[in-house]
Structure formats: structure tokens, C-alpha cells
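ok so I'm stuck.
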Amino acid sequence: MLTAFSCGLIATLCAKPTAPNFVVIYIDDLGWAQTSVPMIEGDPMTRSDYFQTPSLERLAAGGRVLSACYSPAPLCAPSRNSLLHGMTPARMRLTTLSAVEVKKEYRGQITIPNALKQANPNYMTAHFGKWHNECIKPRDAGYDVLDGENNGNGPGDFQDDGKTPLPDDDPKRIFSLTQDTNDFMRKQVKAGKPFFVQLSHYAMHIWHDSLQETRDKYKKLPRPKKGEDKDYVPESEIPVGMYTNGWLINYAAMVEDTDRAFGMTLDVLEDLGIADNTYVIFTSDNGGGFRGNHPLRGSKGNLLEGGIRMPSVVRGPGIEPGSYTTVPMVQWDFLQTFYDLAGGTDPLPADLDGGSLKDVWFNGDDGQVVRNTEEFVFHFPWHTGTPESVIRLGDFKLRKNLDTLEFELYNMSNDLGESNNLADQMPEMVSNLDRRRADYLNQVKAETVTTTRRNYLEQLQGGWIESGEKRLAKLKTDLAADPTNRQVAYQVDVSQNHVNFQASQEEKCLRMIKLHEERGTADSN
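replied:
not stuck anymore, here's the structure
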């Protein structure tokens, strides 16, 4: 006969964990309007009429579209590091692809896995896919389960030997990464553990790849506005370089393959009976740019909206199905948000920049976010392109070219395409926002463009240029031995362009460092 105590014990052991689960689907290089979900409610111009993402439509129907969700940077590494730590790339001193400064001084205070374990030590955490963050290794960041210590872009194209292509049925590891994610969830549910898992896809980053059956489907669809004659020649005639970075059919198929895999994860959540206790967040690390980002201006590699505004949707307990919010938010808010949703109450480190999005996710435009840093400061002292810095506060966004010192000012409430520069009309606004931007960057001792250029120049002259020239010479020898090898011929072209680029960048770095020194802006932002 069971006693009251034993009945209570059995009920406790059999009860589902009350702490919510978290699933982050982190896409690489997906543009804001490159899904079939409108990113602004009722605006068909903010969705694709060609790329098909029914699984994301399913998520949006059950959750909330985040119309103004920003990535921390227009490139992958600083975005991933910022999301993980809840701090801006400027504060972390990892603002571009250069990790020189962050290797000198790690500024992280806490990570998402560690914050969740602080809220509830029962959380199990996992990361699968692209890591690409030299600031910290995933194990040191608090992840319990992972598929690699520091995966860059390479594993998305090749097997573990770095040479053998992935099998045809697993382009960009889309489906095997999804299987890893689903298996992890099943294991934690069986163990009665709440979990956090981040699936960081290699898609949509180059090199592009997809399932043959999906490509065949898109070949038969009506030709879209962005379709070109070169997209509709027989597949056997598509050049290697175009297949991997330029063929609309392949890109569209890759988008849908990734979405199909995402649907499998949604199915598993339903099958396990935990969909109503799991927050699913779909977003991207930076903007795309495959044949433009209309209606946005800009793309990956710059701080215009096309480079940093992300296609983002969240579903979970407390979130109204089929809803939208236009409240601006940024991925460095996610750490504080997850901690809040997980029941964390102890204060987090004061150096975190973000704030909890819980109120906005639950209440849409009626919600509010209280951040440690009120303004959004996006700092991108890009040493191989146009260095720039942006501040968004309220409806206004100020963009500064760090070389020419020119300004652009936009009212984001009515100028999504950043077509009406108000800088000359509103000089006081420009001055006020630029002062706040510079004050923040000085406070956190952010990298200057001269700092990034000096570091880059040191690497170029310290072996990068020499290594590139040696690789090109070897490839040319290989091509001479087999002139019919299309893959090697493509690699020769890529390598030659890379060598030329490095030589031009060496010259540019020297010239621009001298300019900033003469002007007295070498160490200023």
C-alpha cells in the first residue's frame, strides 16, 4: 500500500521539469526578407515570393515575428561572440574578423550556458555547428555537449579530413546537425532535464549546396524577378564558382533544405510533448546579400539595415500566436532574456549591455526593455573595407564613416530603406548622437580603425602574404598537370584574387594609417 509520502515522491519524480527549454536556430548569412514570412505585418515587400520556408511560417503562426531584431555586427565572429556574452562587440574588442585584441584581453563576464546554470543548475546545454569565435572555446563557455571545439566555415563544406566533400544527402551538414540537435533534446527529456541548445547552421554561407531533388523543384517553378538567363542553363553547364556562390536555384534550394530540417526539429518538440514549454528562436548572425536585400539597403559587411537587421521569430510559453512586434532589439539582449525566462533572480554582471526582452516577447509593442546600455552602438572599424560606426537611439540612426568622418542620419520609423539622409537638416541631432556614440566607445576602450589596421598589417607582413603566394604557386602547378580539372581551375582563380587583394590591402593599410596619424584621429572613434 502506498503511503502519502511515497505517492508524493512518485509524483515528484514523474513530473515534467517546469523550467523552460530553449532552442536557438542560428542561420549564417540569411537576409531579412529572404524567407516566406513577412518581417513586417501585412507588408508583402518584406518577404520573398520565391524562397519557400513553410516551417518558419509554422513557427510564426505559433509565435511572434521580431520585425526590428538586430545582429550585433555585420560579420559572423563578432556577432556570435556578442550573443554568447550579452555584450557589444565594442566592449568585447572583437568588432571585425580580427581576434588580435580579444586574445590579449578576454573581457567576458558570463555566457548564456553559465547564466542558465546560475538560474537553474539542472540545465543541460549543447552547441552544434559553426562556432567561429576565437574569444572562447565552447567547453569553456559552459556547453556540456558539442560537436567540435572551434568549428569555422570549413566543416560546412568538407568531412573531418578537410578535403573530402560532404555526402550529397547532407549539404552543409544541414540534416546531420539537425539530427544531433533532435537526439540531444530526446536525451534530456528522457533524463528529465531542462535544456538549451544552439544549432548554428553553416548555411547560407558560401559555398552553397543543396539536395538535388530540391534544386529540381526550383528549376520548374516560375522564373522570379531576380532570375537571370544564366540560372536556367543545364546544371552540368553551371560553372563551379557560380554553383558555390551565385546560382539562384542552388541558393533557393539551400534555404528550403534548411527550413525542411527546421521542421523536423519542430516535429520532435511536438512528439516529445514539450513544445508548450520550449522557447524556439530563429534568427541569423548577419545580413545576407544574395542579389540584394530589398527593401533594405546594404548587406553583409556594412552597418546599413541590410547588414544587421535579421529575419527573427520566437515561439514559446506566454507568446501570442501569429503576433508581431516592431520594438527594436538586438541579440546581445538574448542572454538576459533567457536568464529571466529561466527564473534567474540574482543580479547579472553590470558590464552586460543588454536587457530582458521578456516583456516585449509577451506583450509586443506594449512591452518595454530596460538595458544597461540604452542606445545600440554598432562599431565596425573594418580594416579591409569601409570602417564605420553606428548609434541607434529611439527612431534615429546615425552612421559615421570613420575614414571620411562623414555622417548619415535616418529616421527608422519612416525610412526603412535609409534613402533620406537628414544629417544636414538636423545638425544638433547629429552632434548629440555622435557624442553619445563616442562616449560609449571611449568608456569601453573599443578598438579604433587604426588599431585593427595595425594588427592586420602585422599579420599580412608576418606570413599571410607569403603563404598566399605559396598556395597559388602550388595550385598553378596542379592545374598545369591536369588542365581539365574545373575545381582546381576555380581554386586558382580564387587564390589569385586573394593574393591580389592582400597586396592591395597592405598598401591601403599603410596609406590610411598615415592619414589618420597626420589628422590626429589615429586613436579615436
